[in-house]
Amino acid sequence: MKDRTKKRMIRMGWKMSPETMAAMEEVHAFREEVAELRRTVADLKREVDESRRDSLRIAELTDLVVQALADARSQESRP
Question: What domain count does the chain have?
């Protein structure tokens, strides 16, 4: 019942004001696009954060390797 009434109202809207109905459909499409873009941005932010964490961990591990090599060298040079 509701679907039929809704469809009837939409048809009536198109007959009475096609420009308004077209604008409403365009707004609806834009809202869907904005929602999808927001989801994409949120996903990208998570990926960037993960990449930053990975880069930080790589830097920490690099520092440990450099320090270990420096310690090994200093022990080798001692008589």
Answer: 1
CA 59, 61, 67: angle at the middle one, nearest 5?
A: 100
Could you read off the pLDDT of 17-37 as tens digits, one per residue?
A: 899 999 999 999 999 999 999
Q: Which amino acid type is present at position 77?
A: S
Rounded CA separation 49/33 (Å): 24
Cα 36 to Cα 22, 33, 41, 50, 51: the distances in Å are 21, 5, 9, 21, 23
For residue 57, the enclosing domain spans: 1-77
- The span from the CA of 59 to the CA of 50, in Å, is 14
**Measured CA distances, 57 to 29, 33, 42, 49, 65 (Å):** 42, 36, 23, 12, 12
Residue 78 main-chain phi, psi, to 5 deg = -80, 140
pTM of the model: 0.62
